[in-house]
Design goal:
There is one protein chain. The protein is an all-alpha fold. Helix content is 75%, strand content 0%. The chain has two domains: 1-55; 56-112.
Length: 112
């Protein structure tokens, strides 16, 4: 005879695992949707720059973006140097935010 409690526990584990798989799949699908949406926006912006006669010029320094970069990333809005500076600044902001959060977990350290 099958133990109904044991069977129910096994089924609950199977269902829970399936739920987690579906949630993970949904998370991946959402991330892909966000990436696609962001790419479409960047493409539309690049078309706008093309129409305005500014395509291929860095939106920061207005220097020409390398042809090789545009071939690899046709919607690039920044030259390599400006993009690296922008990424460096963003990473610095994330690091400062992480330090702030971690220090706020230890309020005694904030007074030092």
């Amino acid at each position: 005879m099958i133990d109904t409690a044991s069977r129910a526990a096994d089924l609950r584990l199977i269902l829970s695992a399936r739920r987690q798989e579906m949630q993970n799949q949904r998370d991946v699908e959402f991330a892909l949707f966000e990436m696609n949406t962001e790419t479409l926006v960047r493409i539309d912006e690049a078309v706008g720059r093309l129409d305005a006669g500014h395509y291929g010029l860095c939106v920061e320094c207005e220097r020409e973006i390398a042809e090789r970069r545009l071939r690899a990333l046709p919607f690039a809005a920044h030259c390599q140097a400006c993009e690296e500076r922008r990424e460096y600044a963003q990473e610095g902001g994330r690091q400062r935010a992480r330090l702030h959060v971690s220090s706020s977990l230890f309020p005694d350290l904030e007074r030092s």
